[in-house]
Write a structure and sequence with these properties.
It is built from 19 helices and 14 strands. The protein is of the alpha+beta class and about 425 residues long. The chain has two domains: about 210 residues, 3-Layer(aba) Sandwich (D-Maltodextrin-Binding Protein, domain 2), CATH 3.40.190.10; about 200 residues, Periplasmic binding protein-like II (D-Maltodextrin-Binding Protein, domain 2, 3-Layer(aba) Sandwich), CATH 3.40.190. The chain starts with a helix and ends with a helix. InterPro entries: SBP.
Length: about 425
């Protein structure tokens, strides 16, 4: 036991050492009359490029504040961030997914924003209410959402047209209901058996996201009770959604099993459809010769609903409060949300209704075709165990897709595991 405690202690010291290195000794200092702010982020690839562009725009837009960002590896980001903030060595500005925010708020690591928002006249009403509400805890704002990124439905126009499933406006002709969706997929398959009808994985996050969407389209309630103390899975609806997806794999056989890279067949024009997050838009539109369309996830049941998450900007608590720096940081966060027309080039849906209604946004291809999905995102309950609960759900759903467990057994096990987790 002593060895384990000593090992944990050493690991913590190593993490803190890395964190101090990441800060580069410039957190929130004032230089040449400017307020210097350091942000930690987890953005790589295109997301990282667009975020840097917005930071540069902010720095050029005024002469009082300068923001620099440190990009951490995704796998290590939250561990380093939480450890640093708890030790009083965190950045001035942090990025959090909405789904991770309950954990950060519960640990007392995020600054309440309302007094600061009033002082800089931040207008919360300019934000999409569905996106914003997921960042509000006990009536208090703890983060500025900059987007939402739901799963959506992409389709290859050439393949749909060949099967008679494309209308005159370039939209897919899908009859209503779950049967209509199945018939649509089976028609595509019958028209070209060599084509990948529906590019989609057989395990992991993506099947979970689709199951979450269909479960809530059926009217299923959150898997955790309102008081966050016990599971409350609506098993009949959970089973129905899982069985529908299982049929796509094994009965209709419109999804090839165990696809290692499900983007590749769609990107190369060898798949008719794919369901994934809006973040794929930037990749697909840069693919030469790919004539595709995209719409919100089709409504197969009673209610329009989809899975989604959001990136938010929050202000980590500081060892020593500095109102001037905090106001500057919040001004920066609001600026980033105001310039969502840059961020949406990565595919994300901006959090501000003013951006979505702007001509600049409307003139972008594809985005306007799926921006309504922002209203359909069903965020999880604000439990500080959202991520471990998701891991439990994914692990048990994977046994269904692999035909190792029946849906009934899988959801019984899922319920037991969630109950054990919440009891700790």
């Amino acid at each position: 036991m002593k060895k384990r405690v000593w090992s944990i202690f050493l690991s913590s010291l190593m993490i803190l050492a890395l964190l101090v290195g990441c800060q580069s000794g410039s957190s929130g200092s004032k230089s040449n009359g400017k307020i210097k702010l350091v942000m930690w982020d987890l953005f790589s690839g295109g997301d990282g490029d667009f975020m840097k562009e917005m930071i540069n725009e902010f720095n050029k837009s005024q002469s009082d504040i300068e923001v620099e960002t440190v990009t951490l590896e995704w796998a290590e980001y939250y561990t380093k961030l939480v450890t640093a903030v708890a030790a009083g060595k965190g950045p001035d500005i942090g990025i959090s997914h909405t789904s991770k925010l309950p954990e950060i708020v519960d640990q007392g690591l995020a600054t309440e924003l309302d007094p600061l928002a009033d002082s800089i006249k931040l207008d919360w009403d300019s934000y999409n209410k569905n996106i914003l509400d997921a960042t509000v805890f006990d009536g208090k704002h703890y983060a500025v959402p900059i987007d939402t990124h739901p799963i959506v439905f992409y389709y290859n126009k050439k393949h749909l047209d060949a099967a008679g499933l494309l209308d005159e406006n370039g939209m897919p002709k899908i009859e209503s209901g779950a049967k209509g969706f199945s018939d649509f997929m089976n028609t595509l398959k019958a028209n070209d058996s060599k084509l990948t009808t529906f590019a989609f994985p057989t395990a992991g996050d993506d099947p979970f996201r689709l199951w979450w969407a269909l479960y809530h389209q059926l009217g299923g309630y959150d898997v955790v009770s309102d008081d966050l103390t016990s599971p409350q899975i609506d098993k009949p609806k959970a089973i129905e959604a899982a069985n529908f997806m299982k049929d796509l794999y094994y009965k209709d056989k419109v999804i090839p099993l165990n696809m290692e890279d499900f983007y590749q067949p769609f990107q190369t024009g060898n798949a008719a459809t794919i369901i994934t997050g809006v973040w794929a838009t930037g990749t697909f539109e840069k693919t030469e010769g790919l004539d595709f369309g995209v719409i919100p996830l089709p409504t197969l049941y009673n209610t329009s609903a989809t899975w989604g998450d959001s990136h938010t900007i929050f202000l980590p608590v500081q060892k020593k409060e500095d109102t001037e720096k905090a106001q500057a940081a919040l001004q920066f966060a609001n600026f980033i949300a105001d310039h969502g027309q840059i961020w949406t080039r990565a595919g994300h849906i901006p959090s501000k209704t003013t951006v979505v209604e702007s001509e600049e946004f409307k003139n972008l291809p594809y985005r306007s075709d799926y921006e309504k999905a922002a209203q359909q995102v069903v965020f999880p309950k604000q439990s500080n165990k959202v991520w471990p609960i998701k891991d439990i759900i994914i692990r048990n759903l994977d046994t269904i897709w692999a035909e190792k467990e029946t849906p009934e057994d899988a959801f019984n096990k899922m319920e037991t595991e969630i109950a054990e987790l919440l009891s700790k």
